[in-house]
Amino acid sequence: MAVKLYIEAIHDAILEEMRRDERVFVLGEDVGVRGGVFRVTAGLIEEFGEQRVIDTPLAESAIVGVGIGAALHGMVPIAEIQFADFILPAMNQIISEAAKMRYRSRNDWGVPMVIRAPYGGGVHGALYHSQSVEALFHHVPGLKIVAPSTPYDVKGLLKAAIRDPDPVLFFEHKRCYRLIKGDVPEEEYVLPIGKADVKREGTDITVITYGLMVHLCMDAAEQLAKEGIDVHILDLRTVLPLDREGIIDAVKKTGKVLIVHEDNKTGGVGAEVSAIIAEEALFELDAPIARLCGPDVPAMPYSPPMEKFYMLNSEKIAAAMRKLAEF
């Protein structure tokens, strides 16, 4: 088994799927000769040529619109949005067209398309290069939203997304790209979309999270283990659809739940997770559901002290875990 960076696992998934299926192609700003702003698509144009690795104008609505049209004609596009912040001009294409196509065509047409977008802060990217936008799409039936945390998960889930018959938004936390590494099998594998994963078994409190926050929660859990507090951690991996069974099982493990995500607290994915627990597992709880999220401010600050104030870290998470454990 090879040890890969998170970004290498993404590259490998795209490469293998393009070799497997000649209908798969990549489009986006600078994805060709440049290999992408983060170099995810480096080398693909040399192997597959400019007909399957297409540099586009700086026009996200057009990138997604062209992808939708190609998907309707039998192709399998992987559209790259350089930063998730830039996906907003394409929201109409995603919500009004891609998400609704199967329903409006009475199951005659689907949009087998992946839209990849690096998201999240902590990289001094300030307001236009740091946003978490998953909740903006979380309300939309017809979409799937994936946000993996490890190289193993990101490769298996990206392959699943590319093979999915309907549109998938694939959010990659940009801090994970070259910070997180892990084991990735040499052999072929695909992971199911919509299935959460237990990243740490524990008996005292349950933490439900996704993306980069998984790693911060794991660090915090190790701190609390030294204090005799055993933390159970569930990585959602997919935020739409949510793994309701996995969430309820995790709640039953300890009866105390902390939900952690980087996105703003109000109306975030954590609110829906809380609602599921309240509806289906209320009497399993031994404490009120707790949420630790990004603050409800309009944008990520550029100032390093203010960015540090905005971002969660293992110390903030450990404090929230400790408070819940003591309830």
Automatic annotation (TrEMBL):
SUPFAM superfamilies: Thiamin diphosphate-binding fold (THDP-binding), TK C-terminal domain-like. The keyword Oxidoreductase applies. InterPro entries: THDP-binding, Transketo_C/PFOR_II, Transketolase-like_Pyr-bd, Transketolase_C. The keyword Oxidoreductase applies. Residues 4-179 form the Transketolase-like pyrimidine-binding domain. Its cofactor is thiamine diphosphate. Pfam families: Transket_pyr (PF02779), Transketolase_C (PF02780). Keywords: Oxidoreductase, Thiamine pyrophosphate. This is Alpha-ketoacid dehydrogenase subunit beta. The lineage of its organism: Bacteria, Bacillati, Bacillota, Bacilli, Bacillales.
